[in-house]
Protein: Class I SAM-dependent DNA methyltransferase
Organism: Litoribrevibacter euphylliae
Amino acid sequence: MSDSWDDYAEEWDANPEVVRYAELAFDSLRDTLSSNDLLSSKSSRILDFGCGTGLLTEKLVGSAKDVVSLDLSSKMVEVLNKKGLASVTTVVDELSRNLLERHPAFHQPFDLIVASSALAFVPDFEATLFLLHSCLSSQGVLVQWDWLKPSDESDMGFSKSELTQAYQTCGFTDVVMSEPFSMTSPNGELPVVMVVARKG
């Protein structure tokens, strides 16, 4: 999987649709957390899961004490590193129990975890969700954006029923889903589902 993403790294930030997705995701994050100090106190620890070239990381830097940006693609992270963002720790690895135990960046809990168009690509969604749950502080929040499937039978993205089941299984509370934006494709509009869930 990481090799295929490596192939896209150099041109990723030049794709206007990719840039637009990151902008809309951040706008929806800011709007959703406007009554929460996670993006205003500048004291939060944030994990950008599946950070890619850091288009969302760039927008989070000014709202956090530090940001940990995790991705499997070394080439994507190489592009992010060249941006020279302050207070950002990049990690090229797969999220695993071993990583959480051995890497210092994961030894303190996160107040906010964002996963923008990333969780649909992991081999085991519930197992990854469970690990992300374990990374959060006691009142930490996970925010996910992915394509919304029209039905459980579709093979791209997630349906709301799939998301509801997974988040309940992994112990999240106050799970709220919305469709904050959509992207235009040759086949029509592709709605994006946003999940905001608290560790509880």
The first strand starts at residue 45 and ends at 49. The chain has a mean pLDDT of 93. The beta strands are 45-49, 66-71, 88-92, 110-116, 136-147, 173-185, 188-198. Residues 2-142 form a domain with the Rossmann fold fold (CATH 3.40.50.150).
